[in-house]
Design a protein that fits this description.
This protein is an alpha/beta fold. Helix content is about 35%, strand content about 20%. α2 crosses α3 (about 60-65) and α8 crosses α11.
């Protein structure tokens, strides 16, 4: 046992913490497995760690066992407050929790930035969290590394390469801003209740920005436009940007007749640079 706290199944039973399907909750109760995930996050000694969706606290306890300066857990479901309070009483100096929507948490208020993010993200909001972290206005970002337990299909989309059927907006945004890799597969049977799909642990490390910060909103718009109509040729998907879209694509060495999933991240970067230099007063809100 990692600590004097009761086994997770007892915690769940004591506080009536049945998983909420609407919130995408699936518990990982094997503390040996949560320990492996915490280890994949690297050396946590002296580090501030943000955890989203701790639930009954299995991964939380494994993170605390690795001697971080502090673990800050953010949980939208207030039912878990009593279980998290048990952990806080055991680790009063190194653990705090907030019952709130993690998408609304203000990371700029935290000391010891950059920090690490480690989370078993809710299935129904994982992509939104990751995109927000990747598109943070300050770069280098407030995080030095992200280790996530995700649905396998989401993890595979993050690392997918051009010419893959799952290569898309999430792949491109991830590879623009970070180096990402899948570190571990976790079968669905490891969770309670058992989901319909396996999971993976993905590590995401920030890299030097390949575009100036003022070009990021345009990059995001271009990629969204392209993959909203991914079956069309890129010249058709992006035609609303400018009347000379074919010329701009050719300048970026992109075949105007190619499909969005055939275009490498580096070519999207070149195209955005061309558009930004040639087209003024772009409306990025529509």
């Amino acid at each position: 046992m990692l600590d004097p706290l009761p086994p997770l199944r007892e915690v769940i039973k004591e506080f009536g913490l049945s998983a909420n399907k609407a919130l995408g909750q699936n518990y990982l109760l094997d503390l040996n497995l949560t320990g492996k995930i915490a280890a994949l996050a690297g050396d946590l000694a002296g580090t501030t760690v943000i955890e989203i969706g701790p639930g009954p606290g299995g991964l939380t306890r494994s993170l605390l066992a690795r001697n971080p300066s502090k673990v800050i857990s953010i949980e939208i479901d207030s039912r878990f407050a009593p279980a998290l309070e048990q952990i806080r009483n055991t680790y009063p100096d190194s653990f705090e929790y907030h019952c709130m929507d993690g998408l609304k948490f203000d990371y700029s208020t935290l000391p010891n930035i950059p920090l690490k993010i480690v989370a078993n993200l809710p299935y129904n909001s994982a992509t939104k969290f990751l995109v927000d972290w990747l598109l943070t206005e300050q770069w280098p970002p407030f995080w030095s590394g992200i280790t996530l337990l995700l649905q396998k299909e989401v993890g595979e989309r993050i690392v997918a390469q051009a010419n893959s059927r799952i290569y898309g907006r999430l792949s491109i945004l991830s590879q623009l801003r970070s180096d990402a890799r899948i570190l571990m597969n976790i079968p669905a049977q490891a969770f309670t209740p058992v989901p319909k799909i396996d999971s993976v642990v993905v590590q995401i490390l920030p890299k030097q920005s390949l575009l100036p910060q003022d070009a990021i909103p345009l990059f995001e718009k271009v990629v969204a436009m392209a993959f909203n109509q991914r079956r069309k040729m890129i010249k058709s998907s992006l035609r609303q940007l400018t009347g000379n879209i074919v010329d701009c694509l050719l300048e970026a060495e992109i075949d105007p007749n190619s499909r969005p999933e055939q275009i490498h991240v580096s070519k999207y970067i070149e195209f955005v640079s061309v558009i930004q230099s040639q087209v003024k007063d772009l409306d990025l809100k529509n």
